[in-house]
Amino acid sequence: MPQNWPEELTKTIFDADRALANELIDAWAAEHGYESAVTDYLCPVLEAFGEAWASQIENAQASLAQGYVAAKIAEDALAKVLIAQEASGRAPRAATKGPVVLGNIEDDYHPLGRKMVAAFLRLAGWDVRDLGVDVAAAAFVDAAVAARARVVGVSAMMLTTARNVRKLREEIDRRGLTGRLQLAVGGAVYKLRPELVAELGGDGTALTALHAAALFNRLWTRSCELGPAPGADR
Predict the structure, then answer these.
(1) Crossing angle for the helix pair 5-14 and 18-32, nearest 10 degrees?
(2) How does pLDDT run across 85-124, given as a tens digit for each residue?
(3) What's the pLDDT tens digit per position in 67-94?
C-alpha cells in the first residue's frame, strides 16, 4: 500500500495511468468505502491538479490528454459510488429533481470540473443536460428554455474564458429571464478571484463539486420564488 496516497494518485494522473489510478482508488475504498474514496481522496487530488493546470505552476503544466484521463478517473470512481449506493438502496435510479443545464463557456475546453459537478448532481437526483465544451451563450439559454430548467451551470477555468460568462448573463437578461434562470458559475479562476462571481453576473458558486448539489438546490428555490420556469409560458 502506498505511504503517501495523494502523491501516488497525483502521479498516476500526470502519467495518464488510468488503470493504476483505479487500483489506488479501489484500495482506498476497500478500507474506507467508495464515498470516502471520492470525497476524501480523489476530490482533493483533482482539485489540486486543476489548480496546477490553471495556474501552470512550475513542473505542473497538464496536457489535454492528462485532463481527459483525470476526467475518466473521476467518472470511474463516481460510477462505483453510484453502484454502491444503489446496492444499499440510498441512490436514485432515475432523476427525481428538475432539469438543469451544464456546459463549459465559449472557448473553454477544460471538462474535468464540469464532469465532476455533473456526476455529483446526478447522484443527488438532478436531471442534468450536459452541453459539453465551448458552448455559446445563446445555446445555454436555448437549452434551458427547451428543458424548462431553472438553473444553468457554466464552467470556466481561466480568466480569459471566464470573461465570456458575461455574455451569458447578458443573454439571460435580454430574454427577460433574470432571476427565473439562475446562473451558477464554477472553475479554478473563481477560487483565485472570488469577486468574479458577482462581477461577471453569476448568481452563486460552489467551493467544490461536492457542494454543487446544495448550490443548485438554493438557486432552484430562489428561481421558484421569482416566477415560472423558462419556457413554461410559451
Answers:
(1) 160
(2) 777 766 555 668 999 999 999 999 888 788 888 888 887 8
(3) 778 878 888 888 888 787 777 766 555 6
Q: In what order do the strands lie in the sheet with 204-205?
A: 127-130, 99-104, 151-155, 182-186, 204-205
Q: Do residues 119 and 176 both lie within one domain?
A: yes
Residue 13 zone, left/alpha/beta (φ > 0; ψ -120 to 50; rest): alpha
CA nearest to 223, candidates 196, 183, 186, 185: 183
Do 174 and 78 belong together in one domain?
Answer: no
Please give the Cα distance from 79 to 86 (Å, whole number): 11
Q: What is the pTM of this model?
A: 0.77
Tell me, yes or no, whether 139 lies in a domain. Answer: yes
Main-chain dihedrals φ then ψ at residue 173, nearest 5 degrees: -65, -40
Produce one character per residue of 170-187: b if its CB has 16 or more CB atoms within 10 Å, e if not. ebbeebebbebbbbbbbb
Q: Domain tally for the chain? A: 2
- The Cα 106–Cα 155 span in angstroms is 10
Tell me: do 210 and 107 sit in the same domain: yes
Residue span of the structural domain in which 116 resides: 99-226
